[in-house]
Design goal:
The chain is of the alpha/beta class and 149 residues long. It is 54% helix and 17% strand. The longest helix is centred in the last third of the chain and has 38 residues.
Length: 149
């Protein structure tokens, strides 16, 4: 990984955020932590994150509502819901509100790392495709303007 991906960890359980931070930092990711939805929104307004891992139950907001706020503030940030409440309704609501993945606590570290790696690769591929499309548009537009009688 040439440029380290930045990950926001949002969970009111400090043991979980500490464990995830250690795991992710050992893999070369930069991490930041928020223990409330309000703190997560503030941090997402101040920083750019490639990915956010969100708990579904926070003291001040439901994780599914936080997905909506983060999508408005940081539409390109990948959102992974991590929950100890593995109800089908939670998964459906999370995915409908824009979660990119839904994982259940206790999460298997390898599964989490694989999910993060795959989602970040998808994000980078999408950015490259967008940049290529813009470059082609500019080239075509420039050629048309230069060849205009």
């Amino acid at each position: 990984m040439t440029e380290k991906a930045r990950i926001l960890l949002v969970d009111d359980d400090k043991t979980i955020t500490t464990s995830l931070s250690v795991l992710l930092q050992s893999e070369g990711y930069q991490t930041d932590v928020a223990h409330t939805g309000k703190e997560a929104i503030k941090k997402s307004n101040e920083n750019m994150y490639n990915l956010a891992i969100l708990d579904i139950k926070l003291p001040d907001i439901e994780g599914t509502s936080l997905i909506t706020s983060l999508r408005e503030n940081s539409p390109k940030t990948i959102k992974i819901m991590l929950t100890g409440y593995p109800m089908l309704d939670n998964a459906i609501t999370s995915l409908n509100k824009g979660a990119d993945a839904f994982l259940i606590k206790p999460v298997d570290p390898e599964k989490l790392l694989t999910t993060i790696k795959n989602k970040i690769e998808e994000q980078k591929a999408s950015e490259i495709a967008t940049e290529d499309s813009i470059a082609k548009f500019i080239k075509t537009r420039t050629e048309k303007l230069l060849n205009k009688p």
